């Protein structure tokens, strides 16, 4: 080790360490700002250890002091615990400024009629904002995020065409109690010729091209006891809300994928497949004993769906 020398410019001594004959290390003190920052981090760590969960002790850990958080669980029970992110999030979701404002609007919407909600710009805006989240959480998995549904599986909710009725009370009932959509399979009722005739008649109801002779025979089956289709779809083919039977005259197809059929034969085959196989689909219960949405949440979702449908229909 070489003898420490002083730097001629700064006057600082070297540590005496020398590398490559001339490279030396100055023995400067640590910068004052760095030292105070270092001491500050130590003080912060000690305070944090005292106030917040920190060091493990056996199978537990230090939970901190003076940091209790009270919130309500999903079961509605009040719970007090030490500070943690989950409890803090639950508390803020229930008691934060935004949460309280949201709660105020929910109470306002819950006490209003659907007509009052539609007529009030603030409540309508709240329904649109809050409803889109509810729709995403509860409906979008089947009906898609935009409510356009999936042909053959889940109905379109934004085309102003409702299988069970589109007034607010019926929509609310559908959400609260769920629906069971059912059309029997006619595979053992119709032979191939009859199947083609009935499908041709069904296509003709919405103005689709079909063989005239087959349409005439299909009408007899549709309106007669052999098929009995009129019992649910009515003699005019306009459907029946009470049965969830589709209107066959409005060119809106929820099961047979006619929009994807490029030829007359493809359209005929699509309708024949539905008649042959029947329809069975179920919408779950979102009220009591189902998803357990509250009355107000169901009302918001109902108003939101009506908004979606009416805006698209315009």
Automatic annotation (TrEMBL):
UniProt function note: C-type cytochrome. Part of the cbb3-type cytochrome c oxidase complex.
Protein family membership: Belongs to the CcoP / FixP family.
Entry cofactors: heme c
PROSITE patterns: CYTC
Keyword Isomerase: no
Record protein name field: Cbb3-type cytochrome c oxidase subunit
Organism whose genome encodes this protein: Candidatus Thiothrix anitrata
Pathway(s): Energy metabolism; oxidative phosphorylation
Compartments, as annotated in UniProt: Cell inner membrane
Transmembrane segments: 33-52
Source superkingdom: Bacteria
Record-annotated Cytochrome c domain positions: 126-206, 213-309
SUPFAM superfamilies, sorted: Cytochrome c
């Amino acid at each position: 080790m070489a003898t420490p020398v002083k730097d001629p410019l700064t006057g600082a001594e070297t540590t005496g360490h020398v590398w490559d004959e001339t490279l030396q290390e100055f023995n400067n003190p640590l910068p004052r700002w760095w030292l105070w920052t270092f001491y500050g981090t130590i003080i912060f760590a000690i305070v944090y250890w005292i106030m917040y969960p920190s060091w493990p002790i056996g199978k537990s850990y230090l939970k901190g002091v003076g940091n209790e958080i009270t919130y309500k669980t999903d079961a509605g029970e009040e719970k007090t615990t030490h500070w943690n992110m989950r409890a803090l999030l639950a508390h803020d979701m229930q008691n934060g400024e935004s949460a309280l404002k949201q709660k105020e609007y929910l109470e306002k919407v819950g006490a209003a009629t659907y007509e009052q909600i539609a007529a009030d710009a603030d409540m309508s805006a709240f329904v649109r904002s809050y409803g889109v989240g509810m729709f995403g959480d509860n409906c979008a998995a089947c009906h898609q995020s935009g409510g356009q549904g999936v042909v053959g599986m889940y109905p379109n909710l934004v085309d102003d065409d409702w299988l069970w009725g589109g007034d607010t009370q019926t929509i609310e009932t559908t959400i609260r109690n769920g629906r069971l959509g059912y059309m029997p399979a006619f595979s053992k009722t119709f032979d191939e010729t009859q199947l083609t005739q009935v499908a041709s008649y069904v296509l003709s109801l919405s103005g689709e091209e079909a063989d005239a002779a087959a349409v005439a025979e299909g009408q007899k089956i549709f309106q007669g006891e052999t098929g009995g289709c009129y019992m649910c779809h009515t003699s005019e083919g306009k459907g029946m809300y009470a049965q969830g039977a589709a209107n066959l005259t409005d060119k809106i197809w929820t099961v047979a994928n006619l929009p994807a059929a490029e030829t007359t034969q493809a359209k005929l085959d699509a309708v024949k497949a539905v008649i042959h196989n029947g329809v069975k689909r179920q919408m779950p219960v979102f009220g009591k004993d189902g998803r357990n949405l509250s009355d107000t949440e169901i009302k918001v979702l109902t108003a939101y769906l009506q908004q979606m449908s009416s805006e698209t229909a315009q």
